[in-house]
Amino acid sequence: MMNESENSKECMTVVVPVYNRAHLIRRCLDSIYAQTYRPVSVIVVDNASSDSTSSEVMNWADSHNEDGFKLSLLEENRRGAAYARQTGLEHTVTDKVMFFDSDDRMLPGAIRSIMDAWSTEPEADAVAWPLVVHGKDGDRLTHSVTGCLLERHMVHAIFCTLGYAVRKDVMMACGGWCGKFTCWDDLETGVRLLLRNPRVIALNKPMAEVFPQTESISGVSFSEKVGKWELALDGIDESIVKSGRKDAKRLHNIVSYRRAILAADYFKEEHPELAAPLYSRALSEVPKAKRPLIRFAYHWTRLGMRGAFSIVGRFL
Question: Going along the chain, which residue ranges are E strands?
């Protein structure tokens, strides 16, 4: 790993957690290596893989050893991407860090664009951007980084894992990654980060491509991970309480909105027994005057419609 004597303020560290991605990790690492910006430090954290991931990473590193590019391989045996990301964060010695997923690809020039943006606003705490997602229904661009970033993240997860770079001290100050969250851990982490009102530079072009995998930590349906999504939403509620923000009531209402949307997703997956109690909770935790908004969002989503927040959000 880069030693402390190097100019860490001009270097970017990319933390990549990996689990059983021997067949995909090279695409990810190739895309980082292809970045024109140097110096770059890469920390790959093997999260107890049972395949040949570690040997693939080390073989790749042996053939890509050059000045200005350094790769370290760490092990984290506690299962969960959040544990692995936190391990990488704690071993980061540079001022700036970003997190990347092992099955995705960094777009050409991404780190250069990020660092150029930071050079124009050196006091900024983070740089954020949209992503290109390759889905079964075609490619789509994630939501732009505009407006109230905290609210947009709570609804659209704009501070997802690949969507931003941040100063290490800012990430550590918000608590970093919490291993108890195994689903929506990036949603929960992003809320804690944004509750601190960081200074964020928004880029209007994507910096990475996302390739959704059938075998992933979030699975292929909501119902197969029931309880884990709810745990993240509960964690967000707790962080809002601790923040003491003046807009806490509205933020709690947005969490209830997310519970209603999750309940609707359970219903669409033919699990009304999972949907009913969560929907009831979502209704019970907002003022009576707001309950029609939650009802509308739930039934709108149950029907397969999207964009409920654009209709009810301003009134929550």
Answer: 12-18, 40-46, 69-75, 96-99, 105-106, 126-128, 132-135, 138-141, 164-167, 200-202, 208-210
